């Protein structure tokens, strides 16, 4: 990347994103001290890797929160702590089942496993938006603040992601009846 094209000012970036990162970490399930530790690690990583940021590939906020997500996953993995953030990385369908018959549960579990697989395949920020909107039940405004995009962008990306997911699930052999009552 051409450093002349992007003027890096760590103090400015820290001031701009520290509170957002910290509160996002808390929202993802980090205890206060963990959020402080993780935020420090995130900004150290940003300082060491600012030269890799390319504004033509995405917003500064998306880059910061991508680093935040990865650092937090590492921290939670290191601490063997199951958290909301870990569930973002390791989506599974456990706990979703609410039907009575074993056959219905098996079928629903199969559909949910396919859905989880397809969500994991979505590009960023669509994947994070879907997870935050539908699994963490965040509002579009909360998602926008978390990943550093406008509410309008969240709405557009949500529609785009759901359209992609619906097409992929249909290709996987799932019809509208199988998808009823779910995310799509």
TrEMBL record:
Belongs to the sigma-70 factor family. ECF subfamily. It comes from Leptospira perolatii. Residues 13-81, 119-165 form the RNA polymerase sigma-70 region domain. GO terms for molecular function: DNA binding; sigma factor activity. NCBIfam families: sigma70-ECF (TIGR02937). Keywords: DNA-binding, Sigma factor, Transcription, Transcription regulation. InterPro entries: RNA_pol_sigma-70-like, RNA_pol_sigma-70_dom, RNA_pol_sigma70_r2, RNA_pol_sigma70_r4, RNA_pol_sigma_r2, RNA_pol_sigma_r3/r4-like, WH-like_DNA-bd_sf. This is RNA polymerase subunit sigma-70. It holds the Pfam family Sigma70_r4. It comes from the Bacteria.
């Amino acid at each position: 990347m051409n450093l002349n094209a992007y003027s890096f000012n760590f103090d400015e970036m820290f001031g701009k994103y520290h509170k957002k990162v910290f509160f996002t970490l808390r929202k993802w399930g980090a205890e206060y001290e963990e959020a402080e530790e993780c935020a420090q690690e995130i900004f150290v990583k940003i300082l060491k890797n600012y030269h890799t940021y390319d504004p033509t590939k995405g917003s500064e906020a998306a880059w910061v929160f991508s680093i935040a997500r990865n650092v937090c996953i590492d921290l939670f993995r290191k601490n063997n702590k199951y958290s909301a953030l870990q569930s973002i990385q390791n989506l599974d369908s456990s706990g979703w089942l609410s039907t009575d018959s074993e056959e219905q549960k098996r079928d629903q579990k199969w559909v949910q496993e396919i859905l989880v697989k397809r969500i994991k395949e979505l590009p960023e920020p669509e994947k994070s938006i879907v997870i935050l909107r539908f699994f963490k039940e965040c509002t579009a405004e909360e998602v926008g603040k978390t990943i550093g995009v406008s509410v309008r962008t969240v709405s557009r990306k949500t529609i785009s992601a759901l359209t992609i997911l619906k097409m992929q699930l249909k290709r996987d052999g799932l019809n509208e009846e199988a998808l009823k009552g779910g995310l799509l």
